């Protein structure tokens, strides 16, 4: 048994097709068949049921696939680790973030990082917080900045900055007085969709105060909420980072809410995962510069 055989088995097991797997590993179909037969002989177990031209995994095949995925992941991390030691300021990192911090905080910070370290290729993945957490779990991103409070023992967390979610109105009707959330009971709330940490925090605020607005309209982006507020469709809750320009130009008006709604952003990564020199460089840059982008 060797790594090449396991890689071939991985593709056959996922595609359930010898010809397609052969294309993935750049081998002939007979060569792929020989590698699978070699594995079956090595373990003394059938890994596939062969039904005419169709194949299916046996119980042994399914179990081997689970271990193969782990082995190939470790092999990929090992290769990255060894390559990173050749050139300490060259390579690639993938960073994940929710939409708010990704678009309004990390994007300009990463552009500055790329200016400082032009040989490091940096990819920023921006999705809902729930999707980013899944990508951390499956190893497709190296680290992420999220606001969600988690207690998963497999993750390492490092708090880096705080954020405030504020209600915004299309006019200054509430501008001169502090109001409670109950004072907004006749308003339409424009909120992010489920799965967004922004939405989760506002839901927690409403639940804490046993509050229900007149109506909730879900919108999938911060920009959609901004435009809807501007058009007078309701009051929206957004991070202060996303609306400072509109507030400064008196396009949107913050509502002075008595009940604060804050959250803490942290870096999150898998425990036990190798931290390359490139990741250490990025984390150091992040800690030194993040507050310049969160004022």
UniProtKB/TrEMBL annotation:
InterPro entries: LysR_HTH_N (IPR000847), LysR_subst-bd (IPR005119), WH-like_DNA-bd_sf (IPR036388), WH_DNA-bd_sf (IPR036390). GO terms for molecular function: DNA-binding transcription factor activity; transcription cis-regulatory region binding. Keywords: DNA-binding, Transcription, Transcription regulation. Residues 1-58 form the HTH lysR-type domain. PROSITE patterns: HTH_LYSR. Belongs to the LysR transcriptional regulatory family. This is HTH lysR-type domain-containing protein. It comes from Anaerobacillus arseniciselenatis.
């Amino acid at each position: 048994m060797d790594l090449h055989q396991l890689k071939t088995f991985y593709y056959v097991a996922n595609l359930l097709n010898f010809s397609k797997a052969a294309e993935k590993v750049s081998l002939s179909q007979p060569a792929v068949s020989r590698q699978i037969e070699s594995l079956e002989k090595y373990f003394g177990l059938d890994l596939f049921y062969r039904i005419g031209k169709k194949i299916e995994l046996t119980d042994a095949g399914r179990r081997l696939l689970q271990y193969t995925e782990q082995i190939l992941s470790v092999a990929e991390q090992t290769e990255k680790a060894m390559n990173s030691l050749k050139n300490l300021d060259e390579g690639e990192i993938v960073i994940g973030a929710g939409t708010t911090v990704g678009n309004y905080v990390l994007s300009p910070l990463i552009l500055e990082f790329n200016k400082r370290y032009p040989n490091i290729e940096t990819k920023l993945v921006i999705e809902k917080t729930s999707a980013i957490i899944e990508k951390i779990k499956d190893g497709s991103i190296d680290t992420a900045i999220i606001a969600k409070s988690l207690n998963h023992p497999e993750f390492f967390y490092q708090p880096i900055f705080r954020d405030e979610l504020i209600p915004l109105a299309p006019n200054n009707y509430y501008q001169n007085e502090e109001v409670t959330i109950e004072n907004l009971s006749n308003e339409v709330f424009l909120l992010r969709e489920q799965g967004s940490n922004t939405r989760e925090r506002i839901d927690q605020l409403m639940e804490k105060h046993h509050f229900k607005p007149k109506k909730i309209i879900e919108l999938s982006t911060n920009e959609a909420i901004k435009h809807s507020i501007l058009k007078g469709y309701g009051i929206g809750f957004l991070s202060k980072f996303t609306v400072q320009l509109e507030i400064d130009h008196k396009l949107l008006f913050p509502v002075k809410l008595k009940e604060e709604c804050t959250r803490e952003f942290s870096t999150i990564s898998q425990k036990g995962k190798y931290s390359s020199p490139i990741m250490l460089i990025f984390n150091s840059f992040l800690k030194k510069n993040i507050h310049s982008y969160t004022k």
